[in-house]
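Internal ticket #5521
Category: modeling
Description: The requester needs a full-assembly model to guide mutagenesis choices. All entity lines are attached below as received. Residue total reported by intake: 332.
Assigned to: D.W.
Attached entities:
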Amino acid sequence: MLWTMANEPDEARLAAWRAFVNAHAVVVDRIEHELIDQGKIPLSWYDVLVALWEAPNHGLRLHELARTVVLSRSGLTRLVDRLEAAGLLRREPCPDDRRGAVAVLTPAGRAAQLAAWPAYARGIEAHFARRLSDDEARILAEVLGRVDAAVREPSTPAIDCPKQPG
Amino acid sequence: MLWTMANEPDEARLAAWRAFVNAHAVVVDRIEHELIDQGKIPLSWYDVLVALWEAPNHGLRLHELARTVVLSRSGLTRLVDRLEAAGLLRREPCPDDRRGAVAVLTPAGRAAQLAAWPAYARGIEAHFARRLSDDEARILAEVLGRVDAAVREPSTPAIDCPKQPG
DNA sequence: TTACACTGATTGCATATGCAACTTCTTTAG
DNA sequence: CTAAAGAAGTTGCATATGCAATCAGTGTAA
């Protein structure tokens, strides 16, 4: 069987890619600086706290956390070290697997998350959300959610992948 | 003067933000790894080479380059060090300002850029572009281009901007 | 049971990056 | 013209992160 798969994006999609990458760089850079200037936790910490908050029992296996926040296992180990040292989460042994550990949100961690949110929300609103119409917001969430899901999909052969229904 | 400015994004815009951040993380991570596996230059190098290629005379002042690729000045100094050591660009003294330097693309730099493009293009296509309809691509480029421009705009009062001439 | 491959997490080392201080040059105020 | 203020770039130091190696525990097959 032979199907043709474009291996190069057309001009419109390339423009979308470039805008995507550039907008992310400037907006995240700006928001990160604003958070630090306001004495809040860094975004990498916030992401971990949110992932834990949204997890069952506010806890996640470390490898799951690594996948969720898109960090290498070693990177996550160190990030969890810092959060644990700050008292925002704690490691607990995993009952099912004695190799494993579970990171569990502490009350202080939840408090830090809540304390950071207003500043973060202001940044998102001022530098991102304000620029979106209702339709555009809906479309961005849908399209980028689809992109995210496709990349995270365990079976993504990339070269040999049949076209997916939009 | 008093007007009400929402300082928190609504649910749809927040979903867009989260999809934006998460999709960027997973897609860029994936493409970066694919490039390295294929023996190509890292994305940070590619970004610099493209910025130079698209600049007048294929050269840019270092501080302009830093703004373009969204890097601190010191970070850019070191990145340019590495690219220069690899022969992909060269520093030239700036004729107008004796403090300044201009980074200029070399033929080897242009060659490295061209050599990396097919692998990069495959990654963009496989993990991003093929998930977008024509309309979605157009909208993403427009919206995210708008967001990028607004943040880069020197006068972005956002919340508190103490010193604003005029 | 035992051997072996695999997975989860951590650690050593190397790299990439930012902040703050510094040098050099330019611009502005007086 | 001179001095102060500001801007461009570099460097020292600290931090964040990844890869590869390692240790410990799990699963599988003979």
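Resolution: model delivered.
Comment from assignee: The longest helix of chain A spans residues 11-37.
Ticket closed.
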